[in-house]
Specification:
Elements lengths: L7 E5 L5 H6 L3 E7 L2 H11 L4 E3 L17 E4 L22 H14 L6 E6 L10 H12 L3 E8 L9 E8 L16 H8 L3 H5 L16 H4 L11 H8 L4 H12 L3 E13 L2 E9 L18 E6 L2 E6 L2 H7 L12 H9 L4 H16 L8
Parallel strand pairs: 1-2, 1-4, 2-3, 4-5
Antiparallel strand pairs: 5-7, 6-7, 8-9, 8-10, 10-11
Helix pairs in contact: 10-11
Length: about 375
């Protein structure tokens, strides 16, 4: 790649285009997603040039642009790999879409125009799903095709007030030196243990990628919320009904917040827990200025609540799509769909923009430039 040229990317499972926002100066030569609502949102914000609404299994190499891209980015569906899901693994229907992406990479490779870099983004459950077999299979697949690769576990909480750990597998064909071994904080225990389960060609192809740790996060949850007067709060009865789902520990957290001076802002999710042999729905809250990991609004318990304790009282409401996007590092100029559910789904299925930006500037661009990998 010419030093002055704009690097190109093929964006698979593009969703709302948050990876594109994070990559910034890269040129998206191709993007695809199966979901019509996501594709409409992507087109509304970036235009439809190079955008395809298709199942990745229905695409062929002829559908991809000519030439060799610098990067293929794949944020394949994560539901079957999530620690909160059924963990069906890469053979399951949704997460199995990865293999639809991979056959396109193989086809490009057979034509001598595989991208120089690949990023595979997913939930951290990929490290352990199916007893670690999914990650091992993916690693062996990369190594078999001659890719050198490594993994980083990155939590968006280092940039935005949302706890959102994700796994990023970065693969290259170029000969670039990595670190001599794992380095905190992005080589988590899960990454180190997954590496330890590799053997043969997969272990030989492994690289310990470095990435500089960001400056401390600026701002907190309350700074990203809409003004109180501009949002719809639950009435007293609905708030009381919601708070009845608190267990003793979380009730203590709420009581402490309500008893403190000033304004305390928290978030919460409803979760099903086993108590005394039976399933009980519980509201679990936090008042540390951090939102819980955004999820898609597939059911009522998947929507995140905002709670404000102030002057001895408590108010509650749902987190809005705009607030969810801010928690993903997305500016207010992003055009959201009219549907609340669709907007929340864009955020819940997305990748945090500042994480992608840090990965691009700290690792991907240096790799393209043939620079040795370092960590600050």
């Amino acid at each position: 790649m010419n030093a002055d040229a704009q690097p190109t990317v093929l964006e698979f499972f593009a969703g709302a285009g948050l990876a594109r926002l994070g990559l910034g100066g890269w040129r998206t030569a191709f993007a695809n997603d199966l979901d019509p609502a996501k594709t409409r949102a992507y087109a509304a914000n970036f235009g439809s040039m190079g955008l395809r609404q298709d199942d990745v299994w229905d695409l062929s190499v002829e559908d991809l642009p000519a030439g060799r891209a610098d990067l293929a980015w794949a944020s394949s569906p994560c539901q079957d790999l999530s620690l909160a899901g059924t963990r069906g693994g890469l053979t399951a229907r949704r997460s199995g879409a990865f293999w639809g992406f991979w056959r396109l990479i193989e086809a490009l490779d057979d034509q001598g125009r595989a991208p120089r870099l690949i990023v595979i983004e997913n939930v951290t459950g990929l490290l352990t799903s199916n007893g670690g077999e999914d990650f091992r299979t993916l690693a062996e697949t990369l190594a078999h095709r001659g890719w050198r690769f490594g993994a980083l576990e990155i939590d968006a909480i280092r940039w935005v007030p949302q706890s959102r750990p994700r796994l990023f597998i970065v693969a290259t064909r170029d000969s670039v030196a990595g670190l001599s071994g794992p380095c905190a904080p992005f080589h988590s225990r899960g990454v180190v243990e997954a590496h330890g389960r590799l053997s043969g060609d997969a272990r030989a192809a492994w690289c310990w990628w470095g990435l500089s740790e960001p400056l401390p996060m600026r701002g907190d949850l309350d700074s990203l919320l809409e003004p109180d007067a501009d949002v719809v709060w639950f009435d007293d009865d609905r708030t009381a009904q919601l708070l009845r789902h608190l267990g003793s520990l979380h009730r203590q957290r709420l009581d402490a917040a309500a008893a403190s001076t000033g304004r305390s802002v928290g978030t919460g999710f409803k979760r099903v827990r086993m108590e005394k042999g039976r399933k009980v729905q519980r509201l679990e809250i936090r008042f540390d200025g951090i939102a819980g990991c955004l999820r898609t609004p597939a059911g009522g318990s998947s929507r995140q609540y905002v709670l404000v304790a102030q002057d001895g009282g408590v108010r509650a409401r749902f987190l809005t799509p705009r607030e969810a996007m801010r928690l993903m590092g997305v500016g207010d100029d992003y055009r959201l769909p009219a549907s609340v559910s669709a907007g929340l789904k864009l955020a819940g299925d997305g990748v945090a923009v500042p994480v992608v930006r840090a990965l691009s500037e700290g690792l991907l661009k240096p790799l393209l430039a043939g620079q040795a990998v370092r960590a600050a």
